[in-house]
Amino acid sequence: MKIRQVLFVNLRRIEREGMESLLAARRLGYEVVLLGRSLPDFAAPLVTDFHQVDTYDTELALAAANELASKYDIAGVPSFTEIDVQLAAAIAAQLGLPGMSATAALRARNKFEMKNALRDLDGVLPEFRRVRTLAELRRAVDQIGFPAVIKPTGASGSKGVFELRRPEDVEPALEQLERIASPQFDAVFRQFGAEFIVEEYLDGTEFSVEGMVAAGQVHVVAVTDKITSVPYHLEVDHRMPAAMGAETLAGVTVTTGRIVTALGFDNCAFHLEAKWGPKGMRFIEVAARPAGDYIASHLIPLATGVDYFADLIRIAVGEAPVLQPDRALHAGLRFVLADGPGRFDGVDGVAAVAGDPGYPHLFFEHPPGTAIALPPENFGQQRVAAVVARHATRAGLDALLDAVPGKVTARMDAPPPRRSAPAPAPAPAPATLRTPTLDGMSNR
């Protein structure tokens, strides 16, 4: 039988997630041709052909996709990464394959366009405004009130999320965001730049909904409880299935379907973030790709047995997803955080988890020797390791994950002191720049 190919546009940032996506294609009998900025060493044996291209250059990338399509029998273009949602949709349309519309892909990538498309969903959205200048931000906060949250419209991975709790926070937060929302800080900002959305702060317990849409049908696969850090909203803890009652879960499922359908999502995975509070479910945002932080790649298979990445590839080639759970376990993870800047030298406590079958995985986020900076200087380095746990009960899972901070800690060498002229005394730090702690509250 002739082997067909699926076209991947880049791989996920976390190598173990990228590996799982490649293995999923192989399990289904497809070869992978890769269009991207680089070919990681771990991926080379699993990729049939690699075409290097700047995938931020849409015209160039579409031409490269056409070239690959002339050489291979491409069956689908699954979208695994946040920054490539629009490009993957454009390639699928160009090749006549299942994918998202250009309008839906834009809504998936731009947080203002997303919420603007949902204005008619009563009781679901926070108050929000798009801002680009300090004057616009001040007007928006006057209308929305404190507390509020501001973030770039095109960011991913919790980059540049700032709380505004008092008037003194407004100008420092925008100064930080104008520094962050540039291609020099992160290439993701080549797409929408220094455009921001300010929103009403939402009270409640945060969760995410993991699912996919196939031929217009919305499938909810799992709901995940999450904990994030304050004030920068780094995701530090995930537990599934979420500890919510059957009636709440039913409401979440219905509202999720309304949101995803209104946005026009189709032939894609989705990762929706929301809060449950005094007003019920309130929407934060939704991505048209699988959840990161090992949720889609490891936690869903551990907890449910669903081969999530394989089902995403099935959807991309026009087949129905299987989505049949074969187990009902509880799975989660806890990130190990660096408690200060410096050089990461590894983690203490590996033996404490390696010998316990309740902890199937411990992943390093950075190799030892990495220089670590903390938010707001860097939003991707404070999480230095991840410990995955599973158990037959939620109470058992909670006990395993709650024990992680006492078992596994980051080993850091403090940065050497600077030998320079004394700097002027800094102004008092606003609330948005305080030392991160853990909390269950976030608007990303």
From TrEMBL:
Lineage of producing organism: Bacteria, Bacillati, Actinomycetota, Actinomycetes, Micromonosporales
Key word Nucleotide-binding present: yes
Region annotated Disordered, chain positions: 409-444
Composition bias, kind Pro residues: at what positions?
414-429
Q: Which Gene3D superfamilies match?
A: 3.40.50.20, ATP-grasp fold, B domain
Q: What is this protein called?
A: Biotin carboxylase
Instruction: Give a single Pfam family match.
Output: ATP-grasp_4
Entry annotated with the keyword Manganese: no
Q: Sorted alphabetically, which keywords does the UniProt record give?
A: ATP-binding, Ligase, Nucleotide-binding
- PROSITE patterns listed in its UniProt record: ATP_GRASP
Show where the ATP-grasp domain sits.
115-317
Concerning InterPro entries, the annotation shows:
ATP-dep_AA_Ligase (IPR052032), ATP-grasp (IPR011761), BL00235/CARNS1_N (IPR041472), LAL_C2 (IPR040570)
- Tell me the GO molecular function terms: ATP binding; ligase activity; metal ion binding
